[in-house]
Amino acid sequence: MKKLLYFILDLIYPPKCVFCRKIIDAECKGICTECNKRLPRLCGNSRITRLEDGISCFSSLRYDSMVRDSFLRYKFYGAVSYAETYSMLLAEGIRDIESDFDLLTWVPISRKRKRRRGYDQAELIAEGTSVLLGLDGKRILYKNKETKAQSLTRDRKERKTNIKGAWSLCDGADVKDKRILVVDDIVTTGSTLSECCKVLKEAGALSVTAATLAKAAE
């Protein structure tokens, strides 16, 4: 019955590549052959963004035009189905990190912004990634105040000031002596991730590592 339902849905809403939007087979997992070949995957040191306190952030993709256009549809135009493919790409990159983790969490948006948008883009990616990696995925942080969108800030200093103190540990969250992987969608200067990682370290986390789907040029 379920297979029949999926077959009917595919006829009405055929799966499309999350990058070029061409119709594809379901087996392609959201990426057509052509886009999979030219996807700007990162490797080696180019994957790494150094955050504050010596924390490393590993990114799977370079935030070029094909990734940006896809992500804008996901983040602002309700293309939530993209999260499944993004999770696969992020998990692919995380498997190369030579470290073990006790749990996975994400950088949350504010409650107000989530109500307005209808979903938290980083949360959806984190949920899918935790399943693929077999990691315990938990909400550990919450955003305690509204901030200006980081894309509207002028430079690194303003970005850092804009989000200072904007995240707190959730009530009852226990991170003491835990090895934590923090997931977000995109890293630019690293200010947001550095702030969240700082909260976790101050709460007693043994180690904190960050991972994002994409890395943008500053």
Summarize the structure.
With 218 residues, the chain is α/β, with parallel strands linked by helices. It is built from eight helices and eight strands. 38% of the residues lie in helices and 18% in strands.
Care to describe what's here?
With about 220 residues, the protein is of the alpha/beta class. The chain has 2 domains: about 10-40, no CATH class; about 40-215, 3-Layer(aba) Sandwich (Rossmann fold), CATH 3.40.50. It is about 40% helix and about 20% strand. The protein has helices at about 1-10, 35-40, 65-75, 80-95, 110-115, 120-135, 155-165, 190-200; strands spanning about 50, 55-60, 105, 135, 140-145, 165-170, 180-185, 205-215. The protein has a 6-stranded mixed sheet with strand order 1-2-8-7-3-4, sandwiched between helices. Strand 1 and strand 2 form a beta hairpin. Helix 4 packs across helix 6 (about 120-135). The radius of gyration is 18 Å and the shape is globular. The model is unreliable at about 1-10 (pLDDT under 50).
